[in-house]
Specification:
This protein has about 325 residues and is mainly alpha-helical. It is built from eleven helices and three strands. Helix 6 packs antiparallel against helix 8. The longest helix has about 35 residues.
């Protein structure tokens, strides 16, 4: 039991939306459908990017990793949420909570960095088109993805233990539907100013720095697009960047609101629905955004459904 002596609890109680059984029943159906669609959508992107040789390029290499991240991100918490919504048992073991927190922080950090890598890829494609294939070689692509994974997981390795070790004086009730860092910090019975300061510093490195890089990259891309004389050339450049910009806006808006003010009580009421948004809605929309706005992906899907994944020989 997590007593005043600070010993480790054997489980936590995820309150979630237990104050409204009707809301829980509605959410169960909506979240189950959204999760199944998320699995199908992201698995499809991974499959077509792997099977269609026309999509063996840096852009789709990064998109495959983004889809894998989204799939892992939702799977780290949604099955537990569905279990809690389906009955009276709202508990999660301490080990399960620790794993959930680690994956949630780690995969979220990786996605922040991966979106910055994808912005660099778009910068190279639009601003350095003649040298693009040289700049974005397979070795650099693998290296950039490895750095994103390594830094994201390292951030989680630092913050997860710090968050879990905060004294809670017997409190087990987490006012959330998953073991998310802001909710766990609010449970502490001691001052969390030092922890919140550390979170803010790491958030600058893992959230704001990639976002600043993305904004600078797209500033340079915008300058290059304005110098393109043909309207068709400008439209092509905009199309190749539009999907990524939409995904960045959806993801970063919620992440910044939640993690730049982790202990702020003003965010508590909205926090659950914001978390639902970037844990369910964003991974669900990403495959649609990249599919509906991308002729190459739609063509690959069509060829895959028709059984022609390989390009025809002339």
């Amino acid at each position: 039991m997590d007593g005043a002596n600070g010993s480790t609890p054997d489980h936590f109680i995820l309150l979630g939306f237990s104050h409204s059984p009707q809301l829980e029943r509605t959410l169960y159906v909506v979240i189950l459908i959204a999760y199944l669609l998320t699995v199908v959508g992201n698995a499809t992107i991974m499959l077509v990017s792997r099977l269609d040789p026309r999509l063996h390029s840096p852009m789709y290499f990064f998109l495959t990793h983004l889809s894998f991240l989204d799939l892992s991100f939702t799977t780290s918490s949604i099955p537990q949420l569905l279990y809690n919504l389906s009955g009276p048992d709202k508990t999660i073991s301490y080990a399960g909570c620790a794993v959930q927190l680690f994956l949630f922080l780690g995969l979220g950090g990786v996605e922040c960095l991966l979106l910055a890598v994808m912005a660099y890829d778009r910068f190279a494609a639009v601003c350095r088109p003649l040298r693009y294939s040289v700049i974005m070689g397979p070795r650099l692509c693998r290296g950039l993805v490895s750095v994103a994974w390594g830094c994201g997981m390292a951030n989680s390795l630092v913050m997860s233990p710090v968050t879990l070790r905060l004294p809670r004086c017997g409190h087990r009730r987490v006012d959330h539907f998953l073991c998310e860092m802001p909710a766990l910090i609010r449970m502490a019975c001691v001052s969390t100013a030092a922890v919140e300061g550390a979170v803010f510093v790491l958030a600058v490195g893992i959230v704001l720095s990639p976002l600043l890089f993305i904004l600078v990259s797209y500033g340079l891309i915008a300058g290059a697009v304005l110098r393109i004389r043909s309207s068709s050339g400008r439209q092509k450049a905009l199309n190749t960047c539009g999907s990524h910009l939409t995904v960045v806006s959806l993801f970063y808006g919620n992440i910044i609101y939640m993690y730049m003010q982790p202990g702020n009580s003003a965010s508590q009421d909205q926090g659950k629905f914001l978390t639902l948004f970037y844990n369910i809605v964003t991974p669900l929309l990403n495959p649609l955004i990249y599919t509906l706005r991308n002729k190459e992906v739609k063509g690959a899907l069509r060829r895959l459904l028709q059984g022609h994944s390989k390009p025809r020989k002339e």
